Amino acid sequence: MKRIKLACLLLVFVQQVVLGTHDVYIVTMEGDPVVSYRGGVEGFPATAVDLDEEMDVTSETVTSYSLHLRRHHDNLLDSLFVEGTYEKLYSYHHLINGFAVHMSSLQAEFLRKAPGVKHVERDMKIQKLTTHTPQFLGLPTGVWPTGGGFDRAGEDVVIGFVDSGIYPQHPSFSSHKTDPYGPVPRYKGKCEMDPVTHRSFCNGKIVGAQHFAKAAMAAGAFNPDIEFASPLDGDGHGSHTAAIAAGNNGIPVRMHGHEFGKASGMAPRARIAVYKVLYRLFGGYVADVVAAIDQAVQDGVDILNLSVGPNSPPTATRTTFLNPFDAALLSAVKAGVFVAQAAGNGGPFPKTLVSFSPWITTVAAGVDDRRYKNHLTLGNGKLLSGLGVSPATHGNKSFSLISAADALLGSSATKYSALDCQRPELLNKRKVQGKILLCGYSFNYISGTASIKKVSQTAKSLGATGFIVAVENSYPGTKFDPVPVSIPGILITDVSKTTDLIDYYNSSTTRDWAGRATVFKATAGIADGLAPTLYNSAPQVALFSSRGPDVKDFSFQDADVLKPDILAPGNLIWAAWAPNGTDESNYAGEGFAMVSGTSMAAPHIAGIAALIKQKNPKWSPSAIKSALMTTANTLDKGSHPLRAQQYTTSEMMTLSRATPFDCGSGAVNPKAALDPGLVLDATHEDYITFLCSIPDVNHSEVSNIAGASCNSSSKGQRPYDLNIPSITISQLRGTVTVKRTVTSVSEETETYTIMTRMPPEIALDVTPAALTVLPGASRDITVTLTARSVTGTYSFGEIRMKGDRGHLVRIPVVAMGFK
């Protein structure tokens, strides 16, 4: 017996050596998943339900068919490979029929040719796409009262967060200081136990908490000594996004003895379901994300927030829309789940989006009306502007300046980058005490561990009255954010102002024959930067927010789909933080953080979608998306056209008029989105037709990955025929006619007058010029675009439908004329 076991082990070892290194692969199989299965397999009744019906995931029908699919996956692998040479990580059965497996590239090639296998794709990594905003968006006065007030806003709507987990002890997620939360019977998610405290991660506000890391572990990226093998947030990102969408209302934001206002989620009574896929050191993997999405929809979430995205467009498929990640989300939308995804942080450069598909609501990041700015007054009378959320120097007085270079202790300090003031033991406390410490901004702030918080701690431990961090060199693409600190401090980001500061310091400092500073005559005072300044030139598209046009394949060819879809606040957003979070070194150990990213913009939309879902529980995800887009603002608070932050040729930031490639249909308007008048709806079949209409796309590939076949009705269709609230034609040749169907969601009959706006290079006409729509009825409009001249650039316009009962419906139009 021992010899047989030894021989088997030897065979496994030999196979592993011969087969080579292993990777994680995502495999899709023939046969429908649970959400699409309408019968056909002997002994297994249909499991698919219509959109307005609720699927019972605990029914014997669903569980038996799910088990059938899992067993089929296991049997296939067992029949092909020797046990021990591979590891099946997940069976996907609810949204897609397939599995994730850790195996060699040779095994993957063998599996591609196996009967019943549609598609095999190597796993990809994902990345994070890293509060005053309820007031800025008008929620307390214009939206929450319509749903019963803040204490009912989002009631019983479940938002799933596919992110880095949650810190359940945070007051933003507490259930103690609110009205009791009742059960949500339709939500079937489970709650993992904290392995340290042995307490559940759920509390009534948090209704589900699970973590997914099998692919990360198989890839060797998961370090159990650093990462938490639980839903606990060791990063901060997940807690922050959950609080933005659904955090409790009126939570005091306190830091360093100062209160920065009250934090609230967009839908403060919505429930939170946690699906952890992101980890501290490496981000995450698509196989884990697909498993989380599959589980979330099976559990019964209403909304999915994805502040994550792939590192690059998928390479294994011919189009960005066909990959396991987007296919799972397509099935999620089919199941009635609204999906908000961050656009990406690759701006302001074009074609940097990491969210591609029309069934997903892609969210760009905006700068709201609150800015934290401060200034420094030099002894020579000059005022230097900068960033700093700090108190003023004592008594609003000026104090002597001392450069870190003039406070170094001994030659051993040259081993370190002491001038960035990260190590107090390298500086002379006797010299620094009572002065303002002048520090440099090194590359260690960008790629290392340096932080403004550490400068503050250094200055405080040395007895300094304050600190200045001055940027001497240009760092293209670097985003400088103000950081709350407990002592007076300021960051000077303008290199020219740093030059003024250093010139003044050098001319006012007396040195001996060896260049050592002996008398410090330069003085400065730091103003109070704790209170923000409010601007009317808001919102603006944030510099870092990824831009369109959308791409349809890895060669970056333009797609006939407008992306991003909408703009939401994503710059300097105050929200909950995990005290053990490592994502932002400036907020290590803190309970709140003020951070930026499209990661912060997406949960604004997820929370607002929850408010729409609460009011209109039967609306489809595409109807919710349409309501958000057609009512979006194209003017800022000062009634000027929206602007986008851009780079000049000299890499300075400037503002230009925003286009739909910057902000989609515009800035979200929650009050209007709750009552849009008309919506443009799209079904799962419409999305399949869209996929089948993409030029050069193999129809069998659509069937393999999306799980639905292209039929005769898709012939003659074009991608821009999809009934979404935008029109994008990347290559307009001659005249093209497009149809859009609008459906009334108003309780009254309304007559709409239709107007168009388009640059002269493109002629834009719509018929009829006016139409009357009965409650619940649908009407078609015909849109004709004609290329009058070829400019090699896109033209941006819009269709405006103005109703006689006050509704305004906007559809952005984007086209480039071709010969």
UniProtKB/TrEMBL annotation:
Record domain Subtilisin-like protease fibronectin type-III: where: 721-814
| One annotated GO biological process | proteolysis
Subcellular localization(s) per the UniProt record: Secreted
Q: Which domain of life is it from?
A: Eukaryota
Q: What is its main location?
A: secreted
Domain PA, which positions? 413-493
> Where does the Inhibitor I9 domain lie?
24-126
Q: Enumerate the GO terms in the molecular function aspect.
A: serine-type endopeptidase activity
Signal peptide span: 1-20
Fetch the Gene3D superfamilies from UniProt.
2.60.40.2310, 3.50.30.30, Peptidase S8 propeptide/proteinase inhibitor I9, Peptidase S8/S53 domain
- Positions of the catalytic residues: D163, H237, S599
Q: Which InterPro entries match?
A: PA_domain, Peptidase_S8/S53_dom, Peptidase_S8/S53_dom_sf, Peptidase_S8_Asp-AS, Peptidase_S8_Ser-AS, Peptidase_S8_subtilisin-rel, Peptidases_S8_3, S8pro/Inhibitor_I9
| Peptidase S8/S53 domain: residues covered | 154-642
Report the GO terms under cellular component: extracellular region
Q: Which UniProt keywords apply?
A: Glycoprotein, Hydrolase, Protease, Serine protease, Signal
**Could you say which protein family the record assigns here?**
Belongs to the peptidase S8 family.
Q: Which named protein is this? A: Subtilisin-like protease SBT2.6
Q: Which organism is it from?
A: Setaria italica
